[in-house]
## 1
Amino acid sequence: MSEQKLNEVKITQIRKYFKKNDLFLELILSNYELFNIYIRIDYLKKLDCYRLSWFDLDIININNIDRYLSIEYISKLNIEDIKSICKDIEITNNQEEIDNSNLVSLYINTSIKNNNKLNISFNQFIPVKLGLLSDIFIIIFANMPKKLESFLYELHASLRGEVSKYKMGNKINFNINKDNLENIFTKDIIDIGNVIILKNQVKYLEYIYGRYYALVEDNKKEVVIIDDDNNIIQMKCSCNKSICPHMYAVIKSIRNNQYHKFCKVSLKKNNESLINKILDLNYFLCVGYNENNLEIINNVGEIMETSIVGFNKEVSWVVVEDDEKNTLTKLLMKFEK
C-alpha cells in the first residue's frame, strides 16, 4: 500500500474515532516537507467547548489512536474569529491545479461569502488571492506545539514574497547511487566539485527521513539539501544556484559513503527526553559556533546564529547529539558556570 493510501486509511479511522463529536474544522498537511499531519477542531456538546486535536500520521498506529492523540482546548473567541473571517472569503471553482506534494487541505464547517462551506486544497503556500486564510492558520498554529511553527512560516511564504526560500529545485529522474552524474552536471561543475571532494570540504552529511542534509565549506559554509523520493530527486543549495559544485560534491560523498553526522541541539525549555527529541525531529542541526552564538540550520536551509545564553542569563540550549569529542557539551558547560 502506498504512503498516500495508508494515510487515507489512517484519516478514515481517526474520523470514526471522533464520530460522536461535531467537526468544526479539519486541516491535513500531506507530504508537507516529508511530514504528514492531521489537525481537527471539534465541538464537545457535553462540555460546551471546542477542542483541537492533532496527529502525526507517520507514527500513528490506528489500533491504538488514544496513544497518539495530542489535544489542546481552544477558546470560543478563536472560533468566532474563524467564523468571522470565513464570511469574507469567496472561493470560485477555477482553482489552480494541485498535486500530492506539499498538499494542504482545509475544511471548515461554517459558511463563506457565497454560502458554501469552506473546503479548499492547495500546494505548499496560501494562495495570494486567498490571503484572508492567513489569520485562520495563525489561530490554528497558535494552539499547536511550537515545533510545528515552521510550517506556519512556510504556509505564509507567498504572502511575504519569500517563496524562493522554500522551493526545492526541479524534480529530476535520477538514481542518486547509480546514474551518470554528467546527465545533470557540466564538466566545469564536476571539476570544481572534485576539488571540493579532494579538499575534504563536505564537513557534514546525514540522511534524515528521506532527505540528505550536508554542509560544504567552500569559500563559505553552504547548506545542501537533497530530497530523494523513489529515484526522483530535488536539490537546493544555500548558494542559490539551481545546479552547483556543492550538490555534485554531496552526491559523490553519498556514493562514497562518506557520512558525518551533524551535532544536534534543542531548546532547553522543552522537557521531552533526548530520545523523543530525536524521534520527533524536535531539534536543530548545528554546524558550528563563534563566541556567544551557535550556528544552526533554520527551516529554510540557511545558517543562522543564535545566542547560547537567553535573556534570563541562562543557557537556552541542550545538546541532543554531540561529536566524538563532546565539543558542544563542553562549550555549553562553560556558559553554565
## 2
Amino acid sequence: MVENNMEFIDEEYLSEENEEVFSNITIQSYKTDMGFKTLMQGVEQGIFLVPKFQRAYRWKTNQVEELAASLVRGMPIPPIYTYKNEDGKFQILDGQQRIISLLLYYHDKKLRNTYNAHLNLKNQSIMDVLNDPKITVEHKYKMKYMRNVEGKLREEVKDITYSTLEESLKTKVDFTTITVVEIVFGDLDNKLQNIYKIFANLNSGGAPLSPQELRNGIFVSPFYEMLDQMNKNSKWRRMFGAENKEAKDIEFLLRLCAMEHQMNHADGKVEIRPFKNYTRLLNEFSKESINFNEQTVERYKSQLIKFIDYMPDRIEKSFVLWEALYLAEVLLNFDCNVNVNNINEAISKDNYIKSLDRAVSKTKAIEQRIEIITDAIRKENR
C-alpha cells in the first residue's frame, strides 16, 4: 500500500503553467455599488451563486471578525467579481471567501470547527450549510479598538454582533456599499475559456488558485460531479494519498479521461493526437465535457473504477506510469491482470527511461510508454 505522505516522483509532469492570456478577448464590465444587506439577501435568494467546485472555504474566525470590523468601521471591502450564467444568476468569479464570511457575520454565525476551519460546498448549498448546526454555531462578534482614558490609550472590546447592533449603526452597516463587478463577454463561442483566463488573472495575487481549482469553478457539469465522486473512492485515496489542496488528484483523474479521448487505436496501433500542452488539453476537454450525456459520463466512471480496482499495491507512484497503465488497460478492455514485477522490470529498461526524456516528442513518448506497458501486462496474461 502506498503511504499517504509519499510524493509522486514526477510531479512536474502533472501541471504546467497557465497558458498565456488569450488574444482578442472582447469583454465589458459593469460596476454596481450594493448595500451590504441587499447583497446578503441576494446571496440568500440565490441571485448570487457561490460556485460548488471552487476552493473550499478556509477562513478562520479571527479573519471573519476582522472583515466584520472593517465593515462596521466603514472601511472599503474589495470588489466581488461575477458573470451572469445561462439562468440569469450571478456566478461569483472572485470573492467567495469574503461573501461567505460576510454571510456568517450577517447571521451571527461562525464555523463550529475553529481550529481547522474548512467549509466544502460541493454537496450542499451555502444556506443549507449555514443552517446546519453540525457545521455552524451562534457567535458573538467582537471588535477591538483603542480608547483614550485620562490621556492614556487603552484597548477595549466592543460587541458588533449584527443582530444586536444599535439601530443607527445597523442602518449604517446595511447601507455600506460593496462593489459588484459583472463581466460581460463579447465572444460567446469562447466564453468558458475566457472566464477561465479572467478567473486566473483575478486570482493572481495572494494565494492563487491552481489550474484545476479554476476548472472546478468554471466547468460545472455531471462529468465534473463524477470526478469529484471518484476522488472520494477509498482505494483511490490510498493510492494517491491525502486530498490535495490544489486539486491535483482530481486533475489527474481528468487527465486520464482526456488522454483516452485523445487516443486513437486501430489494428493494434496506438496514436495520440497532437496537443500543445496539458493545460490546454484539459481546458478544451473540460469544455467538451459539459455536453457529455449520461452514458458518456457513466462510461468514463466505469473505466476509472476498473483502473483503480486493477492497480496493484506497491506500484511506483509516477504520474506518467499511471497514465500509461490506464491507457494500456483501455486498449486491453480491462481484461488483463497487472503484475507489479513485470511493470517494474519494464520501467527499468532503457526504452522506457528514454521515453521520459523531455527532448522526445510528447505524443511520441506517450505512445512509447503505452506500448511498453501494454506488452508488460500481456506478458503476465499469456
## 3
Amino acid sequence: MNNDLKLSIIIVSYNTKNFLKDCLESIFQKIKKTSFEVLVVDNGSVDKSEEMVEKEFSLVRVIKNKENVGFAKANNQGIKEAKGEYIFLLNPDTLILDDNINELIDFFDSQQEIGIIGPKVLNADYSFQRQCKRGWPTFWNSFCYVSGLWKIFNKTPWQKKVFGGYFLLDKNENEISEVQQISGSAMIVRKKVFEQVGLLDENYFLYWEDSDFCFRVQEKNWKIYYYPFFRVLHYGGKGGTQRQPLKNLWYFHRGLFIFYRRYLAPNSFFLINIFYYLLIGFMFLFKLFINLFRKEKIIGSVKPKAEINS
C-alpha cells in the first residue's frame, strides 16, 4: 500500500456517461486537502463512457469489462487495485457537495474501532435520503416501512424507536451516530476491513451487497458510523438500473431474500419467516405490475427529483 495515498475512490459505471462526468468533476473540484486516486470500473457500457473518462480525466484509472459483471464484482475489481488507506465506494449518479472530506478522514483516523463511515446523502431536491443510515430489515422494521407506519408514528422518541427502526428515526440526521448499516451509494471503508472481512459478496449481482457487507463487518466487531458533516447528493436510480428495470427489480427482491435468509431468518420464528418471504413475493409482483404502466420504473424506493425552475 502507498502510505502517502489516503483515499481510493471507486466508481462502477454502466452507461452513465453524463452522470459519471458530473460526478468526476465534483470529485476533482471538492477534494483538495486529501491525497486520492480515482478508479472507474466500466461494466461494458455502450455510451462511450470509457472514451469520455480517458479524454477528459487523464488522472482517472479505467478498468474495462467487456460485459456487465454486476455491481459487487465490479467494485471488487476496483478494491483489489486500490492503493489508498481508505476505500470510497461511490455511485456514478452522485455529486460531492462539500470540500471537507479531510475532516471525515481525520475522524476516521481518530477512531480505530470504526470500519465503515457513511456520509450524509441527499436526494436531487436536497432532501435527506434516509437510506444512508439504516437498521436491519427485520420483519417488524420491514412491515412498518412497507405499511407506512413509520410515517404516522414518528412524533415521540418511543415511536421513532419502535416504528422507525429501519430508518433509525431515533437518531438525529444532523449528528454523528453509530448505525447498523449505511448506503452503498457512498460508503467509505478502512482498507484493512476488506483484508479481514473479505470483499463484497458477488452472489448479489445488484442491490443488498452493502447490507451484507455491513453485517459481516459488525460480526468482526468493527463499528459503522454515520457522519453528517460531509454530504453527497445521490440522484438514485440513474446508475444504469433503468436500462433493464424489470430484471433489476428481480435482483432487488432476490437480494433481500438472500440477505434475510442468511442473517435474520435463523433467529426468527419460522412463521414470521414464512410471512416475510410472502411479503417479498408480494412486493415484487406489486412493483412488477405498476411498472408496466410507468415510463420511469421503480426498483427500490422512489427518490424525489430536483425541481426545474422555468
## 4
Amino acid sequence: MKTIIQSVLVVLLVCGAASVLAKDYYVAQDGQTPTLPYTNGWTSAASNIQDAVIQVPSGSLGPHTVWVRPGHYTMSTNVTTYNDEGSVVTTNVVFISTRDIRLRATSTNPADTIIDGGGLYRGIKIIIGTTLTPAYTVVVDGFTISNCYAKSYGGGGVYVDGNSKTWTCMVQNCAIVYNASAAGVSGGGGLYNYEIGASAACALTVSNCVIASNNAFGTGTGSGGAGLKFQSASLVLPRPRVIGCRIEGNTASGDFGGGVFANWANLENCIIRNNYVSGKGGGIHNENAYVSLTNTLICNNTANGGGGAVYFRNANELTGYELELVNCTLAGNIALGSYSGGITLLNSNICQASIVNSIKGVSM
C-alpha cells in the first residue's frame, strides 16, 4: 500500500510540475505599458511578437502559449536584446528556437493578425536545437504571413528546420501569401521544410491554410516549390502532411514545382490550382522519393517544361520511390514543353506509380 501511495504522489508531483511550467504570454500591438515577462495579462502585453517569444524559457517543456491580438506586426526594433538568438533573429520577424511554444492569434480570421516582413525579412523561422522527452511541440495558428522574403535557406513565409531532431510542428489556419525566396537559395517561397538527418525528423503538419501568390526565384537543382517545398536528405519518417489546404497562384521561375516541390510528403483534401513553373511540375514536382495525394484537385496549372499537373522524377533510378494518387481529379493542366500536361513520369521503368479512383480531365 505504501508503494502505491508513493507512486501516486510522484505522478501528482510530476503533473503539478508540468502545469507550473506552462505559462501564457500576451502580445497586443496597441499595448500601452509592456512589462516583462508579458505574463500578467493584456495590460502588460508586449507590443511585438518576438519580444514575447524570447521570454519563453529556452530548453523547457510547457506547453507555453503566446497569445497575439489583432494587429500588423513587423520586425521588432529590439533585436539587439535577443542575446540567446544571435544574429539569426535579424533576418526573421519571428524566430522560434528550441522552445515548446504555441503561437496563437486570438482572432479566428487570419486577416486580422498579420506578420509582415516588409519585403526584406522572413516571416517565421522555427528550429529545435536539442531533443527532450516528451518532444517539443511548436504551433503557429491563425495568422496571415505576408510580404516576407528569404535571403538564405528558403522559406520566405515560414522556414521549418527539422535539424535531425524528434519534435512536432503544426502550421494551421494561416494565410501564407505574397512571400518570396531569393534566387540562389533553397526555394519554398511560401514555406520550406528541410530535414537533414537519417534517424529523426520533425513531424510537420500544414492544415487548413491558404498558400497563394508566392514566388520562388532562381534556377537550378535547389530552386522551386513556390508555394510549399519539402526537402529531405534521406527517406526518414514521419512524412510532412498537408491537409485541407488551398495552394494556388504561386510562381516558380526555376526548374521545379510551381505549387509544391516535395520529395517526401502526404497531401490530403487539398486544392492545387493556377500555379506556374518555368521548368517542370506546374502543380507538383516529386523528386526521388514518396509523395501521396488523396482527395485532391489539381487543376489549371502550367509548366513551361513538362508535367503540367505532376512531374515525377527519379533521377537516381533507385527502387522504392513512389507516386500515389487516390480519389484525385486532374483537369485543365498545361505543359508547354514536350512532356505531358497531366502527369509526367521520368525513368518510369524504375518509378512506382499508383493511381486509384482518380479522374484525369483535359490536359495539354
